[in-house]
Amino acid sequence: VKKNGRFHYRFYRSEMSQAFPNEVLMEAHLRRAIEFDELSIHLQPQIDLQTNEIDSFEALIRWNNRKFGYVPPSQFIPLAESSGLIIQVGDWVLEQVCKNLQEWKVKGYRPVRVAVNISPKQFKQENFATKIEQLLNIYDIEPKYLELEITESSMVNVSETHEILTKLKELGVYVSVDDFGTGYSSLSYLKKYPIDIIKIDQSFIADINKDEKNEAIIKAIITLSENLGMDVVAEGVEEEFQEEFLKLNNCRKGQGYLYNKPLPVDLIIKEYLVN
Ligand code: C2E
Ligand code: CA
Ligand code: CA
Ligand code: CA
């Protein structure tokens, strides 16, 4: 690790683009992003492939820094996770989504479920399920309108995983496994834990028509979810032929630029929620 450390560091710095000269500065700015009102939520539709109707949205955080401009989540989420700021940031996202759901209900818009990305550190908080319960109460939200996306890394080596997931199940919120197929992939957690939805990682979708083994894996994941009574979403659908393949193989839902990119909430309301 030491040996490659320098190269790795330089590579990472150039990857950080023009935005922030270093992580320390980025962290300092991220620390104040909420109070300076620099964070926002975009929503991306997930489409029912049988009906072509909207099934749900995924909430994706956006950070527009007053000094350095737009910073992609791929840059600041890992930093938020390692610095612990993810708790504050994650709470903010959850609260925003709940506020939106409440507002839609009050205004009589069409109710649509929203999925929120949950980092391992957030998930492992002792009071995580209680936090969710409180939010549902405060904003008077039916649990079926909230979905939590966790990754495989949230499920391995956490002794409390079962307890947390069981509590969430009792609350009635949906739980999905994000980036399925890319993690440590012990399939045993699909057996052990009450999971509702599997999201096939976009790297598999990107390789449709390129690699037969890849296609066999996608088909197997779809069949697996079906047999386990779980729902399945394909991520990163960009092309018609990818959608064709997914429909042909009975994938229930799709998400990706083919349908829409993540959009600011006011545009989502206009496009999807008012009749
Ligand atoms: P993810 O959860 O896998 O989210 C999907 C990513 O794919 C999003 O990138 C989305 O904009 C992008 N995407 C959607 N459709 C397509 C497509 O057709 N093609 C391609 N190439 N990409 C597509 P984004 O918004 O930049 O987010 C990147 C990652 O950052 C997310 O990956 C997630 O891991 C993390 N993230 C985003 N928002 C949050 C958040 O509120 N909390 C946490 N903990 N993580 C977040
Ligand atoms: Ca996600
Ligand atoms: Ca994903
Ligand atoms: Ca991802």
What would you note in describing this structure?
The protein has 275 residues and is α/β, with parallel strands linked by helices. The protein has helices spanning 2-15, 23-31, 73-83, 86-106, 120-123, 128-138, 152-155, 161-171, 188-192, 202-206, 212-227, 240-248, 265-273, and strands at residues 39-48, 54-65, 69-71, 113-117, 146-150, 174-180, 197-200, 231-234, 253-255, 263-264. The protein has an 8-stranded mixed β-barrel with strand order 1-2-4-5-6-7-8-9, surrounded by 4 helices. α2 (23-31) crosses α3 (73-83). The longest helix has 21 residues, at 86-106. The chain is globular. Residues 1-15 have low confidence and may be disordered.
**Biggest β-sheet strands, sense, barrel:** 8 strands, mixed, barrel
Helical content (DSSP H or I, runs of 4+):
40-55%
Q: Secondary-structure element order, as H and E?
A: HHEEEHHEHHEHHEHEHHEHEEH
The largest sheet has its strands arranged as 1-2-4-5-6-7-8-9
Shape: globular
User: What is the assembly state of the chains in this entry?
Assistant: single chain
**End-to-end C-alpha gap:** 56 Å
Radius of gyration: 19 Å
Indicate the structural class: alpha/beta
Beta-strand segment tally: 10
Q: Identify every distinct bound molecule in the structure, by name, code or SMILES.
A: ligand C2E, calcium ion
Put simply, the count of helices is 13
Which spans have pLDDT < 50 for at least 5 consecutive residues? 1-15
Query: Strand percentage, roughly?
Result: 15-25%
Mean pLDDT: 92
Protein name: Diguanylate cyclase
Organism: Ureibacillus massiliensis 4400831 = CIP 108448 = CCUG 49529
